[in-house]
Amino acid sequence: MERTDPVRPYISKPINATNEKPDLTSPMERLRKLQGRVTETLSAHRDQIISALKKTGSVLMYGIILLLVFIAYGSIPNRWYKVITIEGNSMSPTLKYGDLVVITRPPRAIEEGTIVTLQVEDAIVTHRYLGYDENGRRMFKGDANLQPDDFSRTNYRIIGVVKLRIPLLGHINIQANKALDAIQGTQGTDRNEP
């Protein structure tokens, strides 16, 4: 008794039973033909491509200018927002060394888990608000720190709430501060660590 497989029926013709001739050109020859077609297409649409590149460049330039104006305005005292540079790793991985953050005025009631910026004596510290401890004092902690901050004997005030993070852009500010410190002959201090 002959056994047949119901899933794979018998094929009477060879799989490649078309009348097409096989492509015997070498891969390099096919690549050259493809390059020729791409070159022809680019030549035909050259003006459109150049126009699109110019428009894209203009949009990028205006976007960069707007970003720089936004950062510059946030660097001077104003009533809406402030831009500061993260110069420590206590909030890693949420906020990293060299990030710019945009802070706004703190609300009357701050929710637990909110990232806030504090003025702690002469330092600016950006940490997470944890709520109140058993003594009714506010608790703050950097995400990378093991223990909450001990501000029990320190004067501090909340100066802002972090609203936006711009990765890596603060490195420009850090380098500018180092250059200014070198010119003035002073050493820079870690501006974002207690």
The coarse overall form would be elongated
Strands, count: 6
Radius of gyration: 31 Å
Placed side by side, the strands forming the largest sheet appear as 1-2-6-3-4-5
What portion of the residues fall into strands of 2 or more residues? 15-25%
Oligomer: single chain
Mean pLDDT: 84
Give the helices and strands, then pairings.
Blueprint (H helix, E strand, L loop, with lengths): L26 H18 L1 H30 L6 E4 L14 E5 L10 E6 L2 E10 L5 E4 L14 E11 L3 H15 L10
Antiparallel strand pairs: 1-2, 2-6, 3-4, 3-6, 4-5
Features:
21% strand, alpha+beta, 194 residues
Q: Can you put this structure into words, describing what you see?
A:
- With 194 residues, the chain is α+β, with helices and mostly antiparallel strands.
- Helix content is 32%, strand content 21%.
- It has three helices and six strands, in the order H-H-E-E-E-E-E-E-H.
- Strand 4 and strand 5 form a beta hairpin.
- The radius of gyration is 31 Å and the shape is elongated.
- Residues 188-194 have low confidence and may be disordered.
